[in-house]
Amino acid sequence: MKRFPAICATALVALIFISNPISGQVELPRKSPRASVSYTVGLTDITIRYSSPAVSGRAIWGALVPYNQLWRAGANEATTIEFSTDIKIEGRFLPKGKYTFFLIPQEGETWTAVFNRSVEQWGAYSYDESQDALRAPVRVITSDYSEERLSYHLSDAGLGKGYIRLWWEKRQVFVHIEADVIRQVLDKMELSISDAAEDRKWELYTQAADFLFNSGDENYLDEALQYANLSTSLLNHSWNWWVKAQVLAKKGEYRQAVSSANKSIDAGKNNTADSFYVNAKSHIEQAISEWKSKI
């Protein structure tokens, strides 16, 4: 019987192994582990998925990551970012959805952030500029402390405002985001009001007025007053009159504010089950005294 030379047999075994890898191989740890971070800014859920490379003693910026070239902003699969609502990136509109996130590093303090519609990419090898949904300049700072592994951080910075931060080695990249959370809340509120029983609508109108007042955005004070008027027209309660009084005072209409605050006191005194008035009584009386001094 004819025998294969030993070297041929060895090569054949190697070929079979390569073309038919053993099933159930053990998955080894990645050099750049998968990572993710999620956060809610206002009513917008944000999720970032990425791989986290290490510095490992290497020169990063302008070397491992070249300047003026598209970078996957991570390792392995391209980084993705998903937004549950429409938002603004550095003041520029971006529809809700999932995007591949790239950066174009530069030597200065401004880089370019790229949001691309084509997801499930490996690195930037199949990048198609025609699929860009948005490009925006973003701020970069150099810190004293070096972060060994690339990481992302999400945070809010006020009502509907926040930022995405990438930190690797000594560079931190900040991408500012903003959602029209006030309009989002009001849209949801209007739906709730339309579905609510008649005897509960006064409460929802008061919630809307109170939310707009506490938002700190004076552009919505007229709308807050409209909601407060709708509420007081439906029910005489210490809470809705007090919210109306605060809105009027914020508008500088102190005489009307005092009148509404007095109606809040009267409504509370005439309703023994009004727990709001019990807790707010001293605060209302103090406000009346201050507003009277401004008339």
Q: Quickly count the helices.
A: 7
What is the H/E order? HEEEEEEEEEHHHHHH
Helix content: 25-40%
Query: Spatial order of the strands in the main sheet?
Result: 1-2-3-6-7-8-9-4-5
Distance between the termini: 116 Å
Mean pLDDT: 90
Structure description:
The structure is a single chain. This protein is an alpha+beta fold. Helices cover 35% and strands 28% of the residues. It is built from 7 helices and 9 strands, in the order H-E-E-E-E-E-E-E-E-E-H-H-H-H-H-H. It has helices spanning 6-19, 181-195, 201-214, 221-234, 238-250, 254-269, 275-292, and strands at 34-41, 44-51, 80-83, 87-89, 92-94, 97-104, 110-116, 132-156, 161-178. The protein has a 9-stranded antiparallel beta sheet with strand order 1-2-3-6-7-8-9-4-5, with no helix packed on it. It is elongated, with a radius of gyration of 30 Å. The relative contact order is 0.09.
